[in-house]
Amino acid sequence: MSPAAAIEHLVGMQAQEPLAPYTGLWTRLASFDPGELSRMTESGAVVRGTLMRRTVHLVTADDYLVLRPVMQDMVERGYASGQFAKQIAGVDMRRLLAAGCALVEEEPRTTAELRDALGPLWPEADAASLAYAVRYHLPLVQLPPRGMWPTRKGHTRAQVTTAEH
Q1: What are the phi and psi torsion angles at 91 (to 5°)?
Q2: CA–CA dist 136, 51 (Å, integer)
Q3: Strand order in 46-50's β-sheet?
Q4: How far apart are CA 151 and CA 130, in angstroms?
Q5: CB of 44 within 8 A of CB of 24?
Q6: Which of 53, 55, 72 is nearest to 21 (CA)?
Q7: What is the pLDDT of residues 98-146, one digit of tens each?
Q8: Are the C-beta atoms of 84 and 133 separated by less than 8 Å?
Q9: Any idea what the Cα angle at residue 61 is, between residues 19 and 101, rounded to 5°?
Q10: How confident is the model over 8-65, as pLDDT tens digits?
């Protein structure tokens, strides 16, 4: 079975720890080459994004486009019940998400970069909570080198953009 077929068969792999899918595939596939998964990540054939249990999973790009809309309500409910939502009560979410979308499509951004760009637009709100609202509500994917083999490249700060972009 190829890595892509295994990832699809598993309906994604938990990837909160950036390099966990490498171990997961190595333990499941007879002749797994970590370079193949890195190449798939670089090409966009597989992506890392928030899905099941509101955590980061590695899935094929096609599966992400199918799975994220199905899980969107669960992701938003989870965000709404957490600490970040309370800290931005009263913020116009449509305006916030439009601003966040424009930022991550202009160039990939880390959560800290989103925080720094969005904070001045809503000075009365908690800037980190604004960034997390964008991270949870928009279908964002993490870009390489996050999740790449070898280890040093796997642990870079996660930069995100929209799945469509």
Answers
A1: -75, 135
A2: 10
A3: 13-14, 56-60, 46-50, 140-142, 160-162
A4: 30
A5: no
A6: 55
A7: 999 999 999 999 999 999 999 999 999 999 999 999 999 999 999 887 7
A8: yes
A9: 95
A10: 999 999 998 888 999 999 999 999 999 999 999 999 999 999 998 889 999 999 999 9
- pTM exceeding 0.85: yes
Give every CB contact of residue 77 below 8 A, 6+ residues apart in sequence: none
| Distance (Å, whole) CA 28 – CA 59 | 16
> Would you say 50 and 75 are in contact if contact means Cβ atoms under 8 Å apart?
yes
Taking the domains of the chain in order of start, what are their residue ranges?
3-162
Give, in degrees to the nearest 5, the angle at Cα 20 between 19 and 22.
Answer: 75
